[in-house]
Amino acid sequence: MRELIGLSKVKLYTYGDILVELSANVDDLPIVGSDQTIKSFRILPGGSSPNSAVSASILKVQVHQIGVVGNDVFSTILLDDLKSCGVCVDSVMSVSGSSAFAVILVDKNGERTMLSYRDISISAVMRELYNVKFSLGDFLHISGYAYQSLDTSEVANNLLRNAKNSGVYVSLDPSYQFAINQSLLSQNLMEDLDYIFPNNNEAYHLTGQKSPDEAVKALLDMGVGCAIITCGNRGCVIGDSSSREIIQIPSYEVSTPLDTTGAGDSFIGGFLAARIKGYNLEQSAKIGHAIAANVIMTYGGHAGAPSLESLRSFVIDNQDDDLLKDIIGR
Questions:
Q1: DSSP character string of 3-33
Q2: What's the pTM?
Q3: Is the dihedral of CA 126, 53, 178, 248 positive or negative?
Q4: What pLDDT does residue 327 have?
Q5: Every domain of the chain and the residues it spans
Q6: Which CATH superfamily is domain 11-173+251-329 in?
């Protein structure tokens, strides 16, 4: 894995869906042909990469969202939300049609089932989207959902090429569909990644390995600089190509999670922001876990993202004194 370049004005760019979450809470998911009563319903701004962007902004990192919104009423909600969270939207374009959205069913255990609409046409603005002026040492994070259409795949690949030519660190959060679609998995793509963040299931489909430790090793063998496999409430497993050492970082316990939507996204945002701030891999994972723990205590993909002060309070409550000193000191 490459050494981080210590620049004071490093930016994090995130590319992927900017969407509306139509979230419904139910006791149990309905079976085909049946009916189920919704206990509560919310309309919230979300999307995988915006969730990561908002979580990264907690650590006062400069975050720029890349993507598109429609020309409907939801676009104002989505953009105002990102701006209020400190995320720059100068690289967000408006296109004709409906903004992307996801229908999310959350069961009594806080687990989610998602149906998404991402067929927003961006062909007219593609060149503007990937013509970003990166600087040496910046970070680019790409959501795997970007590889679910030809237009967005082209944007993702051109952004990645531009980033690598500019000396930018690149990370990918592979979606389930990305992980099972081997035609998207090129050796060049993996070798271009400084970080990859699959969950357990995605890592299995990417590598064929059922053990997180073995999956990490397989991803490193594919050329990834650092592989981080998220394992839900069991934390994460990390390996980097420099030392080949595998480390396990436990997550923080949350007794009553309300909604796991955005948990992985918020972990990624916190992790990458921490790396930009100079934290090591273990510290970065702890910060990612702390932010994710706060997010799942509130409904929505990033509505529960804590302030920096709330993050410090959370660390104090969990008696992680070493991490607290680091957060206060930076």
A1: PPP--TT-EEEEES--EEEEEEE-SSPPPTT
A2: 0.89
A3: positive
A4: 62
A5: 11-173+251-329
A6: Ribokinase (3.40.1190.20)
